[in-house]
């Protein structure tokens, strides 16, 4: 399948609109299209009546000037086209499926853009193969430019030993090279990178880190855990142009998967500016709801009463992101009792509870939800406690739409606090299926019952916002929807599902990726449904996700992605 690139789609549309529009567009925004969708399955939204979900279907949809201009019966929509004297592009769905644009409620957008530019080394079967990839990349890079990559794993090689700098020195003699291991907990540098970082024989191993050395104590090229920071510090921060390019790359990637919107969890003010520019010029291919990182947000003036917004709301800052604890895979998630597979270890809190409370107070005072990363049951409890202390109890949190990001392992006592306090559980269904091989070892049979507890949270009356945590996982929302309704890996294992009691219905999953994700960004009146007056974010698939078997969802092809009335992606052959 060859995709029409977003840029070329825009140029084609601009040409259709005539040269004057094109000229205007160069200076301001890419053109918005008038689109008339008909003759297919069009899901306007998922309604919720007393916890029972029902799909609302319409016959036709008109997009005009970035908004839904009409939605409903075909005759009525055609009457509106005539009344407005429009000549929209007729999108004959021919039985295909259109739905409110899919939103990833937790995706690291800028990171995705950068990761797409890094060498992908996952699955490399020898260090020589990695060096070959680096040598190819070096041909296209300027002298001195850093070459970065990730994904190598010496466990896949014939000699299961850490590699050395030499091989990379030969592959890219003029460029510093920095390649992270598959788990991100070690990295492989060439001599140029080590020299720029000032890592020499005399450099001591830092706390919590190790520099691999030869018999004479000279660094051999691989740095482990905290020692990786020695080189990370030397990697130049991306230029404005590189940041901009990364955001565009991420948007193009998201559009191919049918994502129209993303909640970007935690950015600094430089990234805010880059988003702002791209949104104002109409170039941002994705609607981005951003959380400021707590460190940025706590600076004076960073939480203005009038929220930062650009491009008619295509980009906006809506919340603040903090971290309670680490991750489960590396046993950094804070647990109330020892890790089942590591007695004596309960993980760690990365932010003192008092600081979380200070953030929560500032957020309450300025009208921003606080969104706290919490994985372990202790991490979650500490975050919930901080929220309640800051608000003076559950009543003070009502309607504030505070969130917990991941909410991955919950103590049975804490689970009802989400519904009671109006706290949104922002969860990533693919984490459940990716963690499946080792999560029960870490947590033990009893504690795992409170993990990935989507169904229990929904039944308790809490609201779910669903996402992927890309680039940790793939941005492809089909994978998240599938994982949410099956708790199985894409290969269908285990047959009954890993957490069979937590399966969502397809409509519940779609809500989590549309209207409830919109609610979690204070945008439920603008996106998440196809209703007259709302922003025109639409995703088209070749089959009706609400009626096919789960395995078919993985085969569904994204045909078209419309963001704010702009066709950002269209599959070839439509
Ligand atoms: Zn994340």
What does this structure look like?
With 574 residues, this protein is an alpha/beta fold. It contains 21 helices and 24 strands. The strands form three sheets. Strands 1, 2, 3, 4, 5, 6, 22, 23 and 24 form a nine-stranded mixed β-sheet that branches. Strands 7, 14, 15, 16, 17, 18, 19, 20 and 21 form a nine-stranded mixed β-sheet that branches. It is globular, with a radius of gyration of 24 Å. Residues 106, 108, 265, 469 line the site of zinc ion.
Please give a quick description of this structure.
The chain is α/β, with parallel strands linked by helices and 574 residues long. The longest helix is centred in the middle third of the chain and has 17 residues, at 240-256. The chain is globular and about 80 Å long.
Largest sheet data: 9 strands, mixed
Number of strands: 24
Termini separation? 11 Å
The parts where pLDDT drops under 50 for at least 5 residues are 1-29
Radius of gyration: 24 Å
Bound molecules: zinc ion
Number of helices: 21
Derived from helix and strand composition plus strand pairing, the structural class reads alpha/beta
Oligomer: single chain
Shape summary: globular
Strand content: 15-25%
Mean pLDDT: 92
Helix content: 25-40%
Element layout with pairings:
Blueprint lengths: L2 E2 L1 H12 L1 H9 L7 E15 L2 E13 L2 E6 L1 H11 L4 E4 L4 E4 L1 E3 L4 H8 L2 E2 L6 H14 L6 E6 L12 H7 L5 E5 L4 E4 L1 H7 L11 E5 L5 E7 L2 H5 L7 H17 L2 E9 L1 H12 L6 E7 H4 L11 E2 L4 E9 L29 H14 L3 E5 L2 H15 L11 E4 L8 H7 L2 E4 L1 H7 L3 H9 L6 H6 L4 E3 L10 H10 L19 H8 L1 H5 L18 E4 L8 H4 L4 E6 L2 E6 L3
Parallel strand pairs: 2-5, 2-6, 7-14, 8-9, 9-10, 14-15, 15-17, 17-18, 18-19, 19-20, 20-21
Antiparallel strand pairs: 1-24, 2-3, 3-4, 6-22, 10-11, 11-13, 12-13, 16-17, 22-23, 23-24
Helix pairs in contact: 1-2, 4-9, 5-6, 9-10, 12-13, 15-18, 18-19
């Amino acid at each position: 399948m060859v995709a029409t690139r977003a840029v070329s789609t825009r140029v084609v549309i601009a040409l259709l609109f005539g040269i004057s529009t094109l000229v205007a567009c160069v200076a301001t925004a890419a053109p918005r299209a008038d689109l008339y969708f008909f003759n297919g399955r069009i899901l306007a939204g998922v309604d919720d009546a007393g916890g029972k979900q029902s799909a609302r279907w319409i016959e036709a949809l008109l997009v005009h000037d970035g908004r839904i201009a009409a939605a409903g019966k075909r005759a009525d929509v055609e009457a509106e086209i005539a009344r407005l004297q429009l000549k929209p592009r007729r999108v004959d769905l021919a039985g295909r499926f259109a739905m409110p644009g899919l939103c990833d409620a937790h995706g690291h957008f800028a990171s995705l853009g950068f990761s797409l530019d890094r060498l992908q080394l996952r699955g490399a079967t020898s260090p020589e193969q990695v060096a070959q990839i680096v040598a190819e990349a070096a041909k296209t890079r300027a002298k001195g430019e850093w070459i970065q990559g990730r994904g190598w794993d010496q466990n896949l090689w014939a000699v299961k030993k850490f590699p050395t700098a030499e091989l990379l020195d030969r592959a890219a003699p003029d460029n510093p090279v920095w390649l992270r291991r598959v788990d991100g907990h070690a990295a492989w540098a060439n001599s140029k990178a080590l020299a720029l970082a000032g890592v020499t024989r005399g450099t001591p191993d830092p706390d919590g880190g190790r520099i691999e050395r030869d018999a004479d104590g000279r660094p051999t090229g691989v740095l482990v855990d905290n020692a990786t920071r020695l080189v990370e510090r030397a990697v130049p921060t991306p230029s404005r142009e590189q940041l901009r390019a990364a955001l565009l790359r991420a948007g193009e990637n998201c559009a191919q998967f049918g994502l129209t919107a993303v909640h970007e969890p935690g950015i600094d003010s430089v990234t805010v500016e880059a988003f702002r520019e791209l949104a104002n010029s109409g170039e941002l291919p994705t609607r981005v709801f951003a959380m400021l990182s707590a460190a940025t947000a706590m600076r004076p003036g960073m939480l203005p009463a009038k929220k930062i917004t650009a491009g008619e709301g295509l980009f906006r800052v809506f919340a603040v992101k903090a971290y309670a604890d680490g991750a489960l895979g590396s046993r950094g998630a804070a647990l109330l009792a020892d890790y089942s597979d590591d007695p004596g270890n309960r993980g760690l809190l990365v932010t003192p509870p008092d600081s979380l409370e200070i953030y929560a107070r500032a957020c309450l005072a300025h009208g921003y939800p606080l969104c706290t990363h919490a994985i372990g049951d202790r991490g979650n409890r500490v975050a919930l406690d901080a929220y309640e202390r800051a608000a003076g109890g559950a009543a003070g949190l009502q309607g504030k739409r505070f969130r917990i990001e991941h909410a991955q392992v919950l103590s049975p006592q804490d689970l009802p606090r989400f519904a009671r306090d109006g706290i949104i559980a922002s969860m990533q269904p693919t984490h459940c299926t990716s963690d499946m091989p080792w999560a029960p070892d870490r947590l033990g049979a009893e504690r795992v019952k409170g993990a990935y507890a989507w169904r229990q949270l929904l039944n308790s009356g809490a609201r779910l916002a669903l996402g992927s945590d890309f680039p940790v996982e793939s941005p492809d929302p089909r994978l998240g929807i599938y994982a949410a309704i099956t708790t199985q890996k894409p290969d269908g294992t285990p047959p009954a599902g890993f957490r069979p009691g937590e399966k969502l219905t397809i409509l519940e999953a779609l809500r989590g990726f549309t209207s409830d994700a919109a609610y979690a960004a204070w945008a439920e009146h603008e996106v998440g449904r196809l209703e007259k007056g709302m922003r025109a974010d639409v995703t088209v698939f070749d089959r009706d996700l609400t009626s096919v078997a789960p395995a078919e969802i993985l085969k569904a092809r994204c045909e078209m992605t419309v963001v704010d009335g702009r066709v950002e992606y269209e599959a070839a052959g439509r």
